[in-house]
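Changelog note: in this version the structure field was regenerated for every chain. One regenerated record is shown below for reference.
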Amino acid sequence: MLGLRLIARTGAEIRRDVAAVKARDPAAQGVGTVQIVASWPGMHALLAHRVAHALYGAGARAAARLIAAVARSVTGIEIHPAAEIGDGFFVDHGMGVVVGETAEIGDNVTLYQGVTLGGTGFATGKRHPTVQDNVTIGSGAKLLGPITVGHGAKIGANTVVIHDVPPHATVVGNPGHPVRVEGRRPEGPDADWIHLPDPVAEAIKGLSSRIATLESTAHAPENGGRRSVDGADGSEQPDGRSNPAVGPSPAGG
């Protein structure tokens, strides 16, 4: 009876995982379930992890680690057997993905290639990220330490996240900082990494524009400043000498 329940649960998990691939991978449109299970590296890594995680929890840790090592060699995706992963987990391409021992991943989470859910230092205990439901993490992103990524958050490609991420926030940069996308709450596996805002770049652009405006105003004749005569603005005179700028003496008097 226990074996039948385990088979039924495993079958349901596989169906949900396959449905996640079909929903979030454009390359999987029109592809059958058998082909997805047989040829998608993310599915191979996830199926291997489901088995390894069950064995790890049952105390067969050597076997669990062996399965994880074989899966890493075959798929390029390294998931520690102790990591907890919810339903609808999808790894697109997946090469270079690393999920640490104490990582916790909720339902309907999407990871792209090169993502790391890693730890910092040599401390024991909880040292890897907790990723809540409906989170999308872009290519090359690094999430380090026992941080929490809130529900519906979106992590931009190559972002380094070392602090908690609020729900429904979009995080970009190194170190990562939360921003908004046109005032909307990002939800679901939105993979539009092209139009993510960068507040640092926008601030620098604004400062550059302000400086250009001030310079043009300062050099305008109608600004009320004195026009230079006979090199009185510090320019070179015909005899090669330069005059100081006209104005009151800085020493007073």
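Spot check on this record: Helices lie at 2-24, 33-39, 41-57, 61-75, 199-218. Confidence is low (pLDDT under 50) at residues 227-232.
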